[in-house]
Protein backbone atom coordinates (compact mmCIF):
# COMPACT_ATOMS: atom_id res chain seq x y z
CA UNK A 1 0.00 0.00 0.00
CA UNK A 2 1.32 3.46 -0.93
CA UNK A 3 0.47 5.01 2.40
CA UNK A 4 1.69 2.14 4.56
CA UNK A 5 4.32 3.09 7.11
CA UNK A 6 4.24 -0.22 8.97
CA UNK A 7 3.45 -3.38 7.06
CA UNK A 8 3.58 -6.75 8.78
CA UNK A 9 3.12 -9.92 6.76
CA UNK A 10 2.73 -13.28 8.47
CA UNK A 11 4.97 -12.05 11.28
CA UNK A 12 5.66 -14.91 13.67
CA UNK A 13 7.98 -15.38 16.64
CA UNK A 14 8.43 -18.64 18.49
CA UNK A 15 10.26 -19.08 21.77
CA UNK A 16 10.67 -22.85 21.85
CA UNK A 17 7.15 -24.22 21.67
CA UNK A 18 5.55 -20.89 22.55
CA UNK A 19 4.24 -18.79 19.65
CA UNK A 20 4.62 -15.33 21.16
CA UNK A 21 3.45 -13.75 17.87
CA UNK A 22 1.43 -15.86 15.50
CA UNK A 23 1.01 -14.90 11.83
CA UNK A 24 0.48 -11.18 12.43
CA UNK A 25 -0.72 -9.23 9.39
CA UNK A 26 -1.15 -5.52 9.88
CA UNK A 27 -0.87 -2.24 8.01
CA UNK A 28 -0.52 1.11 9.76
CA UNK A 29 -0.85 4.09 7.44
CA UNK A 30 0.86 7.46 7.47
CA UNK A 31 -0.45 9.84 10.11
CA UNK A 32 -2.49 7.16 11.83
CA UNK A 33 -2.55 6.45 15.57
CA UNK A 34 -2.88 2.70 15.93
CA UNK A 35 -3.44 1.01 19.28
CA UNK A 36 -2.24 -2.52 19.85
CA UNK A 37 -4.50 -3.58 22.66
CA UNK A 38 -4.00 -6.76 24.63
CA UNK A 39 -3.49 -8.24 28.06
CA UNK A 40 -0.09 -8.96 29.63
CA UNK A 41 1.83 -11.59 27.71
CA UNK A 42 -0.21 -11.12 24.52
CA UNK A 43 2.93 -10.63 22.46
CA UNK A 44 2.82 -6.86 21.98
CA UNK A 45 6.41 -6.18 22.98
CA UNK A 46 7.70 -9.10 20.91
CA UNK A 47 5.86 -7.76 17.85
CA UNK A 48 7.33 -4.29 18.44
CA UNK A 49 10.86 -5.67 18.84
CA UNK A 50 10.52 -7.37 15.46
CA UNK A 51 9.32 -4.11 13.87
CA UNK A 52 12.47 -2.46 15.19
CA UNK A 53 14.75 -5.24 13.99
CA UNK A 54 15.75 -5.95 17.60
CA UNK A 55 14.65 -9.57 17.44
CA UNK A 56 14.43 -11.78 14.38
CA UNK A 57 11.10 -13.20 13.25
CA UNK A 58 10.76 -16.98 13.05
CA UNK A 59 8.65 -16.37 9.93
CA UNK A 60 7.16 -13.47 8.00
CA UNK A 61 8.37 -9.91 7.52
CA UNK A 62 8.13 -6.52 9.19
CA UNK A 63 8.51 -3.58 6.84
CA UNK A 64 8.82 -0.13 8.40
CA UNK A 65 9.09 3.07 6.33
CA UNK A 66 9.85 0.88 3.31
CA UNK A 67 12.68 -1.06 4.98
CA UNK A 68 12.72 -4.67 6.01
CA UNK A 69 13.39 -4.38 9.74
CA UNK A 70 15.37 -7.63 9.92
CA UNK A 71 17.59 -6.95 6.92
CA UNK A 72 17.99 -3.23 7.53
CA UNK A 73 17.59 -2.40 11.24
CA UNK A 74 19.85 0.66 11.10
CA UNK A 75 17.73 2.30 8.39
CA UNK A 76 14.61 1.55 10.41
CA UNK A 77 16.19 2.99 13.56
CA UNK A 78 16.82 6.25 11.71
CA UNK A 79 13.15 6.61 10.85
CA UNK A 80 11.55 5.29 14.01
CA UNK A 81 11.42 6.66 17.52
CA UNK A 82 10.90 3.93 20.10
CA UNK A 83 9.86 4.52 23.66
CA UNK A 84 10.03 1.35 25.79
CA UNK A 85 7.69 0.83 28.75
CA UNK A 86 10.33 2.01 31.16
CA UNK A 87 12.47 4.98 30.19
CA UNK A 88 15.78 5.57 31.99
CA UNK A 89 17.65 8.86 32.41
CA UNK A 90 20.76 10.04 34.18
CA UNK A 91 19.24 11.19 37.46
CA UNK A 92 21.98 13.65 38.28
CA UNK A 93 21.61 15.42 34.93
CA UNK A 94 18.91 17.99 34.11
CA UNK A 95 16.14 17.39 31.58
CA UNK A 96 17.99 19.52 29.05
CA UNK A 97 21.31 17.75 29.62
CA UNK A 98 19.65 14.34 29.22
CA UNK A 99 17.92 15.43 26.04
CA UNK A 100 21.06 16.99 24.56
CA UNK A 101 22.91 13.76 25.26
CA UNK A 102 20.29 11.68 23.43
CA UNK A 103 20.10 14.19 20.57
CA UNK A 104 23.85 14.04 20.02
CA UNK A 105 23.80 10.24 20.19
CA UNK A 106 21.19 10.35 17.44
CA UNK A 107 23.41 12.53 15.30
CA UNK A 108 21.51 15.82 15.55
CA UNK A 109 23.84 18.50 14.17
CA UNK A 110 25.67 20.59 16.83
CA UNK A 111 24.49 23.85 15.21
CA UNK A 112 20.86 23.08 15.93
CA UNK A 113 20.93 20.69 18.85
CA UNK A 114 20.36 23.24 21.64
CA UNK A 115 17.53 25.10 19.94
CA UNK A 116 15.83 21.86 19.02
CA UNK A 117 16.11 20.51 22.56
CA UNK A 118 14.63 23.68 24.05
CA UNK A 119 11.78 23.65 21.54
CA UNK A 120 11.12 19.99 22.14
CA UNK A 121 11.01 20.36 25.92
CA UNK A 122 8.50 23.19 25.53
CA UNK A 123 6.45 21.11 23.12
CA UNK A 124 6.10 18.21 25.56
CA UNK A 125 5.15 20.55 28.38
CA UNK A 126 8.46 20.59 30.25
CA UNK A 127 9.36 24.18 29.40
CA UNK A 128 9.46 25.14 33.08
CA UNK A 129 11.50 22.09 34.09
CA UNK A 130 14.38 22.34 31.63
CA UNK A 131 16.98 22.80 34.35
CA UNK A 132 15.55 20.36 36.90
CA UNK A 133 17.44 17.14 37.59
CA UNK A 134 15.50 14.15 36.28
CA UNK A 135 16.07 12.27 39.54
CA UNK A 136 13.35 14.52 40.96
CA UNK A 137 10.95 13.95 38.04
CA UNK A 138 7.56 12.26 38.50
CA UNK A 139 6.71 9.27 36.33
CA UNK A 140 4.52 11.53 34.14
CA UNK A 141 7.36 14.02 33.67
CA UNK A 142 9.72 11.16 32.79
CA UNK A 143 7.28 9.94 30.14
CA UNK A 144 7.13 13.44 28.66
CA UNK A 145 10.90 13.59 28.60
CA UNK A 146 10.90 10.11 27.04
CA UNK A 147 8.64 11.45 24.31
CA UNK A 148 11.02 14.37 23.74
CA UNK A 149 13.88 11.83 23.50
CA UNK A 150 11.99 9.95 20.85
CA UNK A 151 10.94 13.03 18.88
CA UNK A 152 14.24 14.92 18.91
CA UNK A 153 15.55 13.00 15.91
CA UNK A 154 12.39 13.92 13.98
CA UNK A 155 11.20 10.39 13.25
CA UNK A 156 8.49 9.48 10.73
CA UNK A 157 6.92 7.01 13.09
CA UNK A 158 6.94 6.59 16.85
CA UNK A 159 6.35 3.31 18.64
CA UNK A 160 5.33 3.62 22.27
CA UNK A 161 5.21 0.50 24.45
CA UNK A 162 2.74 0.96 27.32
CA UNK A 163 3.44 4.71 27.41
CA UNK A 164 1.04 5.51 30.23
CA UNK A 165 2.18 2.86 32.69
CA UNK A 166 2.22 4.26 36.22
CA UNK A 167 0.98 7.77 35.36
CA UNK A 168 -1.98 9.14 37.33
CA UNK A 169 -5.31 9.57 35.45
CA UNK A 170 -5.01 13.30 34.77
CA UNK A 171 -1.40 12.82 33.65
CA UNK A 172 -2.54 10.07 31.28
CA UNK A 173 -5.17 12.31 29.75
CA UNK A 174 -2.69 15.10 29.14
CA UNK A 175 -0.05 12.74 27.81
CA UNK A 176 -2.44 11.13 25.32
CA UNK A 177 -3.74 14.53 24.22
CA UNK A 178 -0.15 15.53 23.56
CA UNK A 179 0.47 12.45 21.42
CA UNK A 180 -2.66 13.14 19.41
CA UNK A 181 -1.76 16.79 18.95
CA UNK A 182 1.76 15.93 17.79
CA UNK A 183 0.48 13.31 15.40
CA UNK A 184 -2.11 15.65 13.89
CA UNK A 185 0.23 18.64 13.63
CA UNK A 186 3.18 16.78 12.17
CA UNK A 187 1.53 13.90 10.31
CA UNK A 188 3.40 11.57 12.64
CA UNK A 189 2.47 7.89 12.54
CA UNK A 190 2.02 6.40 16.01
CA UNK A 191 1.81 2.81 17.14
CA UNK A 192 1.11 2.42 20.80
CA UNK A 193 0.68 -0.72 22.80
CA UNK A 194 -1.48 -0.82 25.87
CA UNK A 195 -3.70 -2.98 27.98
CA UNK A 196 -5.74 0.04 29.08
CA UNK A 197 -8.70 0.00 26.77
CA UNK A 198 -10.07 3.34 27.93
CA UNK A 199 -6.85 5.09 27.13
CA UNK A 200 -6.58 3.48 23.72
CA UNK A 201 -10.16 4.46 23.01
CA UNK A 202 -9.41 8.12 23.75
CA UNK A 203 -6.57 8.54 21.35
CA UNK A 204 -6.40 5.91 18.61
CA UNK A 205 -7.84 6.11 15.11
CA UNK A 206 -7.79 2.33 14.86
CA UNK A 207 -7.14 -0.48 17.28
CA UNK A 208 -6.18 -4.12 17.04
CA UNK A 209 -7.08 -6.59 19.76
CA UNK A 210 -4.12 -8.85 20.26
CA UNK A 211 -4.43 -12.00 22.38
CA UNK A 212 -2.20 -15.06 22.64
CA UNK A 213 0.02 -13.80 19.83
CA UNK A 214 -2.90 -13.42 17.44
CA UNK A 215 -4.59 -10.32 16.15
CA UNK A 216 -8.25 -11.16 16.70
CA UNK A 217 -9.80 -8.06 15.17
CA UNK A 218 -8.75 -4.65 13.95
CA UNK A 219 -10.54 -1.54 12.82
CA UNK A 220 -11.92 1.69 14.13
CA UNK A 221 -14.32 1.55 17.03
CA UNK A 222 -17.39 1.92 14.84
CA UNK A 223 -16.34 -0.95 12.61
CA UNK A 224 -15.46 -3.17 15.55
CA UNK A 225 -18.69 -2.57 17.37
CA UNK A 226 -20.72 -2.97 14.17
CA UNK A 227 -19.00 -6.27 13.36
CA UNK A 228 -19.13 -7.66 16.85
CA UNK A 229 -22.53 -6.46 17.87
CA UNK A 230 -24.37 -6.69 14.58
CA UNK A 231 -27.00 -8.87 16.22
CA UNK A 232 -27.43 -6.57 19.17
CA UNK A 233 -28.29 -3.35 17.43
CA UNK A 234 -30.39 -1.76 20.13
CA UNK A 235 -30.04 -2.59 23.78
CA UNK A 236 -32.23 -0.82 26.30
CA UNK A 237 -31.37 -0.86 29.95
CA UNK A 238 -34.33 -0.35 32.26
CA UNK A 239 -33.94 0.23 35.99
CA UNK A 240 -36.95 -0.26 38.22
CA UNK A 241 -37.61 0.98 41.74
CA UNK A 242 -38.12 -2.59 43.01
CA UNK A 243 -36.65 -5.95 41.95
CA UNK A 244 -38.82 -7.98 39.57
CA UNK A 245 -40.75 -10.58 41.59
CA UNK A 246 -41.51 -12.97 38.71
CA UNK A 247 -38.83 -12.50 36.04
CA UNK A 248 -40.05 -15.38 33.88
CA UNK A 249 -43.50 -13.75 33.56
CA UNK A 250 -41.94 -10.44 32.57
CA UNK A 251 -39.61 -12.09 30.08
CA UNK A 252 -42.44 -14.00 28.49
CA UNK A 253 -44.56 -10.86 28.12
CA UNK A 254 -41.71 -8.81 26.67
CA UNK A 255 -40.82 -11.49 24.14
CA UNK A 256 -44.30 -11.07 22.67
CA UNK A 257 -43.07 -7.77 21.22
CA UNK A 258 -41.81 -8.46 17.72
CA UNK A 259 -38.59 -6.47 17.93
CA UNK A 260 -37.50 -7.89 21.28
CA UNK A 261 -34.82 -10.52 20.82
CA UNK A 262 -33.23 -11.19 24.19
CA UNK A 263 -33.80 -10.22 27.80
CA UNK A 264 -31.68 -10.36 30.92
CA UNK A 265 -33.27 -9.65 34.29
CA UNK A 266 -31.01 -8.90 37.20
CA UNK A 267 -32.98 -7.83 40.29
CA UNK A 268 -34.34 -4.41 39.38
CA UNK A 269 -32.31 -4.08 36.20
CA UNK A 270 -33.50 -5.38 32.84
CA UNK A 271 -31.47 -5.40 29.65
CA UNK A 272 -33.45 -5.86 26.48
CA UNK A 273 -31.83 -6.46 23.10
CA UNK A 274 -33.99 -5.51 20.13
CA UNK A 275 -33.79 -5.68 16.36
CA UNK A 276 -35.11 -2.08 16.13
CA UNK A 277 -35.30 0.91 18.38
CA UNK A 278 -38.54 0.26 20.27
CA UNK A 279 -37.58 2.07 23.48
CA UNK A 280 -40.88 4.02 23.67
CA UNK A 281 -42.89 0.77 23.34
CA UNK A 282 -40.80 -0.86 26.04
CA UNK A 283 -41.24 2.06 28.42
CA UNK A 284 -45.01 2.05 27.73
CA UNK A 285 -45.09 -1.67 28.48
CA UNK A 286 -43.46 -1.22 31.90
CA UNK A 287 -45.74 1.70 32.78
CA UNK A 288 -48.84 -0.29 31.75
CA UNK A 289 -47.66 -3.18 33.89
CA UNK A 290 -47.45 -0.79 36.88
CA UNK A 291 -43.68 -0.94 37.32
CA UNK A 292 -41.99 2.20 38.65
CA UNK A 293 -39.16 3.07 36.26
CA UNK A 294 -36.23 4.97 37.73
CA UNK A 295 -33.94 4.84 34.70
CA UNK A 296 -33.92 4.17 30.96
CA UNK A 297 -30.69 4.01 29.05
CA UNK A 298 -29.88 3.06 25.51
CA UNK A 299 -26.65 1.12 25.48
CA UNK A 300 -23.82 2.14 23.22
CA UNK A 301 -20.93 -0.14 22.46
CA UNK A 302 -17.42 1.08 23.06
CA UNK A 303 -14.13 -0.67 23.58
CA UNK A 304 -15.34 -1.78 27.01
CA UNK A 305 -17.93 -4.07 25.51
CA UNK A 306 -15.62 -5.19 22.72
CA UNK A 307 -12.93 -6.02 25.24
CA UNK A 308 -15.43 -7.77 27.46
CA UNK A 309 -16.67 -9.79 24.53
CA UNK A 310 -13.21 -11.14 23.90
CA UNK A 311 -11.61 -11.27 27.28
CA UNK A 312 -14.49 -12.08 29.59
CA UNK A 313 -16.14 -14.53 27.28
CA UNK A 314 -13.17 -16.88 27.55
CA UNK A 315 -12.23 -16.36 23.94
CA UNK A 316 -8.72 -15.67 25.10
CA UNK A 317 -8.34 -19.33 25.86
CA UNK A 318 -9.66 -20.50 22.52
CA UNK A 319 -8.95 -17.96 19.86
CA UNK A 320 -10.21 -20.23 17.10
CA UNK A 321 -13.69 -19.85 18.49
CA UNK A 322 -15.84 -17.41 16.58
CA UNK A 323 -16.96 -14.40 18.59
CA UNK A 324 -20.65 -14.14 19.27
CA UNK A 325 -21.63 -15.40 22.69
CA UNK A 326 -21.99 -12.18 24.64
CA UNK A 327 -25.72 -12.20 25.08
CA UNK A 328 -26.32 -15.88 24.53
CA UNK A 329 -24.59 -16.64 27.80
CA UNK A 330 -26.74 -14.62 30.10
CA UNK A 331 -29.81 -13.69 28.15
CA UNK A 332 -33.06 -15.44 27.58
CA UNK A 333 -33.31 -15.49 23.83
CA UNK A 334 -36.21 -15.81 21.46
CA UNK A 335 -35.82 -19.13 19.60
CA UNK A 336 -35.09 -18.68 15.91
CA UNK A 337 -37.62 -20.12 13.45
N1 LIG B 1 13.04 -13.73 25.34
C1 LIG B 1 12.00 -14.52 25.59
N2 LIG B 1 12.16 -15.84 25.80
C2 LIG B 1 11.11 -16.65 26.03
N3 LIG B 1 9.82 -16.22 26.10
C3 LIG B 1 9.60 -14.91 25.92
C4 LIG B 1 10.67 -13.99 25.65
N4 LIG B 1 10.13 -12.75 25.51
C5 LIG B 1 8.80 -12.89 25.67
N5 LIG B 1 8.47 -14.17 25.91
C6 LIG B 1 7.11 -14.71 26.11
O1 LIG B 1 6.36 -14.35 24.97
C7 LIG B 1 5.02 -14.01 25.35
C8 LIG B 1 4.72 -12.61 24.88
O2 LIG B 1 5.48 -11.68 25.65
P1 LIG B 1 5.46 -10.11 25.37
O3 LIG B 1 6.40 -9.48 26.32
O4 LIG B 1 5.67 -9.88 23.93
O5 LIG B 1 3.95 -9.75 25.75
P2 LIG B 1 3.29 -8.32 25.98
O6 LIG B 1 1.97 -8.34 25.29
O7 LIG B 1 4.22 -7.24 25.60
O8 LIG B 1 3.06 -8.33 27.54
P3 LIG B 1 3.22 -7.13 28.62
O9 LIG B 1 2.04 -6.25 28.43
O10 LIG B 1 3.20 -7.88 29.91
O11 LIG B 1 4.53 -6.46 28.36
C9 LIG B 1 4.96 -14.17 26.86
O12 LIG B 1 4.41 -15.44 27.14
C10 LIG B 1 6.40 -14.09 27.29
O13 LIG B 1 6.63 -14.83 28.47
TrEMBL record:
Gene3D superfamilies per the UniProt record, alphabetical: P-loop containing nucleotide triphosphate hydrolases
One protein family per Pfam: ABC_tran
Keyword Nucleotide-binding: yes
Keyword line: ATP-binding, Nucleotide-binding, Transport
UniProt xrefs under InterPro entries: AAA+_ATPase, ABC_transporter-like_ATP-bd, P-loop_NTPase
Domain ABC transporter as annotated: residue spans: 6-237
SMART domains in the cross-refs: AAA
GO molecular function list: ATP binding; ATP hydrolysis activity
Family label: Belongs to the ABC transporter superfamily.
Name of this chain's protein: ABC-2 type transport system ATP-binding protein
Amino acid sequence: MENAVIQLRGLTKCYGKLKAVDDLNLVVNKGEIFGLLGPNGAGKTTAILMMLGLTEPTAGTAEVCGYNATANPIAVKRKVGYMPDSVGFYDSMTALENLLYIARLNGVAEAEVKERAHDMLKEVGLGADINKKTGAFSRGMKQRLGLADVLIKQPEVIILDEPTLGIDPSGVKEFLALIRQLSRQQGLTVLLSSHHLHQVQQVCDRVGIFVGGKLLVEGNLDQLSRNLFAEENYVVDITLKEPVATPWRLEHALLQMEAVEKIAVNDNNIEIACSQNVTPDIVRFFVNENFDITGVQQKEYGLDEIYQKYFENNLTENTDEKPGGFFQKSFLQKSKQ
